[in-house]
Hints:
five-stranded parallel sheet, 16 helices, about 30% helix, Rossmann fold, homodimer, alpha/beta, GMP Synthetase, Chain A, domain 3
Amino acid sequence: MYLTQGLHRAVQQFPQRDAVICEGRRITYEKLAERCARLAGALEDLGARPGDRVAMLALNGSQHLEYFLGLWWGGLVANAVNTRWSAREMIYSINDSGARWLLVDDTFLPMVEELRAACPALERIVHVGELPTPAGLLSYETWLAAARPVADGRFGGDHLAVILYTGGTTGFPKGVMLSHSNLWASAIGRLAETDPPERFVTLLTVPLFHTAGLGKVVSQLIVGGTAVVLPAFRVEAVLGSIAREGVTDAVLVPSMIQMLLDDPTFTDYDLSSLQTLTYGASPISQALLERAMAALPMTRFTQSYGMTEAAPVITVNPWRNHQGEALRNGLVRSAGRAGWGLEVRIVDGQGTEVPRGTVGEVIARGDNIMQGYWNKPEATAEALRDGWLHTGDGGYMDEQGYIYIVDRLKDMIVSGGENVYCAEVENILARHPAVAACAVIGIPHPTWGESVHAVVVARAGMAVDEATLTGFCRAELAGYKCPRSVEFRQELPLSGPGKVLKHVLREPYWKDRPARL
Amino acid sequence: MYLTQGLHRAVQQFPQRDAVICEGRRITYEKLAERCARLAGALEDLGARPGDRVAMLALNGSQHLEYFLGLWWGGLVANAVNTRWSAREMIYSINDSGARWLLVDDTFLPMVEELRAACPALERIVHVGELPTPAGLLSYETWLAAARPVADGRFGGDHLAVILYTGGTTGFPKGVMLSHSNLWASAIGRLAETDPPERFVTLLTVPLFHTAGLGKVVSQLIVGGTAVVLPAFRVEAVLGSIAREGVTDAVLVPSMIQMLLDDPTFTDYDLSSLQTLTYGASPISQALLERAMAALPMTRFTQSYGMTEAAPVITVNPWRNHQGEALRNGLVRSAGRAGWGLEVRIVDGQGTEVPRGTVGEVIARGDNIMQGYWNKPEATAEALRDGWLHTGDGGYMDEQGYIYIVDRLKDMIVSGGENVYCAEVENILARHPAVAACAVIGIPHPTWGESVHAVVVARAGMAVDEATLTGFCRAELAGYKCPRSVEFRQELPLSGPGKVLKHVLREPYWKDRPARL
C-alpha cells in the first residue's frame, strides 16, 4: 500500500469533492492531486530524491495535505515541526532530520533568519502564505505554478513516510520513524471497527504535526472524505465549522471538550451532524464525559489510547461502552482493548505477561508500530523488543482484555494532550545558577488534566522566585512544557541510591483522586 | 501483520467464545489456539519447516480452521485441494505444490492409495474424521493429543500463507500464491467498508478451498467472530443454521440464493439475524436479486467482484446501491468500485487507460494482489505488470468509478460460482478419437448463471454421441467442468487466421439477454 492510493481512488470516483476546506479555501480532490504532482516535481527539480526529508513549520492549513501527499507522491519524508516548540527545539528537529528544504507559513516568517543561521543543511526555504515573500525565499504558489507535474512513484509499504518528533526522556526530542504501512495499519484498523459514514467530514483542530491529526488525514484519504482544517483551536471556529460544514467526525482532547461545553454559545449551534467524537491523550473525568454525552446526544463517543510510536492507535474503547451498564460498572473508564490489527499485553520488568488485574507495562505489537527512532539505535532497541513496543505506560488488563492505564512508567506529564518529559524541563531548570536541585511532576488541573509543577531547592545564599524560573524556561522550551507552578523546598526526598522519590512529591496532590483514566 | 493475530486477540478477550461450529461440534477460541499450537508442533516433529507446504483434501469442516491457523502458526503454507476436482487434477496440484504431508477426511479416504501412488513426495498422510483410521495413516486426534504445543512463530507480512489452485487457460491449474498480507489486506479493507456487527457469526457454505470462503475466515479472525461451517451446500442446513445460530453474515453465489428462495420451507425459518449477504462470482439477474431482497427485508445485500489472484476482493457495490434510485438506474448491476486498499483501472491492450464507458481489461493494484503463480514465472509476468493484476475480464467504468463487467477476455465460463477454463475442457475433448474439432462456450443457465456447452465436429466416418463425450470428460475433469450439453456441427466458424469465432457460437444463446451482470 501507499498513502497516495486513496487520493487516486477519490480522483477516479468523485474528483469534484472537497478534499480540504480551510478558512474559506476549498481544494477538490482533482485539484489536490494536480498540486501534489507539481509539488513532487518542484522538489525533484530542487534535487530531492526518494527518502530525503522535507520540513514544514506552519500552523494547521490546507497546505498540510499538499505537503504530506506531495512528499509521499515523490517518496519523500515529512518532518512537520511542532509549532509549539521553542526555537531551540525546532532547530534541533530540523537539523536532526537532515532536512534540506523547509516550508514556512506567514506565522513563522519572522523565524526564517534564525533558522537559516542555525540549520546549515537547509538549501531552500519555501514561503506558503498570504504575506509578501521575503527575498531569498521561494514563493509556494509561484514555484508550484512553474513546476513540472510528475507521475506518482507509488512509494509505500516499508518506505518511510514521516519523522515525527516527540519529547524524550533524555532531554532531547526523538524522531519517530513511521512508514506508509505504519500509518495505514492504524487508520484502516480503526475504520474497520467503526461504521463507515455515508459522508465523512472530519474536523482537524488537533495539530497536524501530531499523529492524532495525521492519523485522521490518513483515514480521510482511505475513505475519500473531506477535511475541515482549523489553524488553531478556537471555540467559535470549532462550533461554527461543525454546524456549517456538517462535520461528521472529530478528534478532541478532553480540555478542548471542556472549553466547548463551557462556552455560553455552545447551544446556539446545530451540532447534530457530528456522528463520532474520539477523545484521548489525557485523562477525562467521568463527570465531563457524561456532560459531553448529554450535550451531544447524536454523537458516538469513542476513547482511543495510543502514541506517536504506534501511528497512533493501540486500544479503542468503542461507543457501545459509553452507555448503560458500562457507565455504571466503570468499563467506560477503560482505555479499551487491542485494536484490530495489533496485539497488546501487560508485562513485568522481565517481559513476562502478568496476571489479569496486576499492573505492569503496556506493550503492543502490530503493523502500526514505528520502525524506530531516527538515528537512535539504542533508544530504538530499548523501545522495540521482539517487535513489541514498550510504551512506558503502566496499566492492568481485566478478564475481557480491557486495559486501564494507571501510571506512566516513563517520567512524563500529559498536559492538554501534549506529552511533557520531566527530564527535559529539569535539564533546563538545572541550568539556572540559583537552582541547586529540582524535580518536575504533573499535578491535577481541571482543564488540562495535568499541569507542570516544579519542586526546587535553591542554591544556598541565592534568592530566586517563581517568575524568574518560569521566564527562564520559556526562553528554552515550548510554553506547554514550562512549569505553571513552582514550589521551593529545603531538600528533595531521595531514595537510598539518591534517586528523587517523585511519588512522594506527587502524593499530596493526587491522594483524593481515583487512579488516572 | 500475521494471520494468527486475531486468534491471540480473541483468546485474550473472549476465550470461551465459539470460534467454529460444525455439525454439532463447537470449538472455543481457547481450545482452537491450543489445538493450533499442537498441530504446528506435530508438523514440526514430522520435519515441516517454515515455508513448507501441507495439503488437505476434505469437505468443509471445523478442521479447516485448525489446518489454516495451525499451519500459519508454524509458518507453513496451505494447499487446500479443490474437492470437486478429478483425481488427475488433485494429484497435479499436490505434486505441483511439493506438499510432503496431506490431511484427508472420511470422504476422501478411498482415494488415499491412488494419491500415495501418484504423489511420491508425500511422506505422511493424516486422517481427520470419524471412521477408523486405516493402517499406515496417522489419526489426527491421536497425533494431536500426543503433540508438543509450540509457540506461535508469528510469521506474517510477505510470508506465503496459501497456494490456491485455479484452472488455467493452458489446460493445467495454476497455484496462486497468497501471503499473509494479501489475505489481510482484502479482509480488513472489506471490513472497513461495512458496519462492524456487535456479533459476527458467518456462515461458511462456500468451499473453504476457495478464496471466497477463506477470505471470510480471515475476516472472522480479525473480528473475533464465529464460523458456522457446513460440509456442503444443502438448503435445509443453510436455513436451519442461520435460524439456530443467529448467523449475521453469509457469502453465497447466485445459484445458492435461488435454491434457497425456491425451497418451499424457506418461510418456515426466522432469518432475521442475517444482516449482511454478499453475493458474487457469477451474474445475478435483477429479478432474482429483487426477489431475494424482498424475501430478506432485514438483510443488506452487497455485491463483491474479485478472484483468487486478488485474495479475493477487487470491487464492492455496497448495500446502499441496492435500494431506491440505484435499482432503477442500473447502478445495482455494477460490480462496484475499487475497494478501500486498492486501485482499479480499465486499460487497452497497450496498458493505457481508456475513456469512461469504453470496454477494456480490468486491472487492479493493491496489497491484496497475489505474489504470483507458484513456479510459473512466465504466467506471473503475464498477469502482474508493474504491480497491476491483469484480470482478463472485460469491463467499462462509469463517471463515478463504478465498473461493469461485460465479458471475460480470458476464455472462461463461470458456472455456479466455479471458473471453468474452456481450453481445459477442449484439451480433454480433443483427445477423444472421434473428435475432429471442438469449441467450448458458456450458455445461459437459469440456476448456474452459465453452463458448459461443447460444439463438436466429428471425425469423418466416425459415430459419436453426447453421452459418450460427457462420460469421456467425467473421467478426467471435475464434474462442474464437464459439458452439460453437446452440439454437433459440420464445421466451426473460423477467423481468417483460423481462430474459432466463439462470439458467433455464443450469439444465438445470448442475443436476447442483457450484458452479463
